[in-house]
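Handout, section B. The chain below has 168 residues.
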Amino acid sequence: MPERADEGRQPSVAIVGVGNELMQDDGVGVHAVRRLQRVRLDPRALCIEAGTALAEALDLVPPGSHVLVVDAASGDGQPGSLYRYRLDDLAVERGVSLHETSLPEAFALAQVAGTTLGDVVVLGVEPSVVAVGTELSPTIEERMPSILEAVQAEVARLLGNEPADGTR
């Protein structure tokens, strides 16, 4: 079951780490959120570890909050490449997922259930290795500082503090 930190505050952005942490780089979103929980974030940001249970994790997002999903994403770039998608961009994509429910399906289910959300952005990380294992590949581990910086920049953008950077 996903965990929610600091239940008393009302965040404006929920950072949701998605992925199968038993499949190396597919778990990059979970690893990123765990590391973000150890740094000082804007107090309006909430970190949620979803793993492969995104649909259930969306129940933890406060109504009206923006959502930033961090997940592995194949975009034919070099391992560690970052991609920025809006949820609508993903609705037309079809592919194999290690998650119980695809991202568009999970958000559609939440909407049907009456959940109201702000903007939904997905920050995808091109994996290097997707195989059984709990550690990130050396390539993704090396890129983790820039991944975390990109997440923090996107949080600032969603909160109205900065423009978006050049990721796709």
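Note. Strands lie at 3-4, 13-18, 45-51, 66-72, 82-86, 120-125. Compare this with the example in section A.
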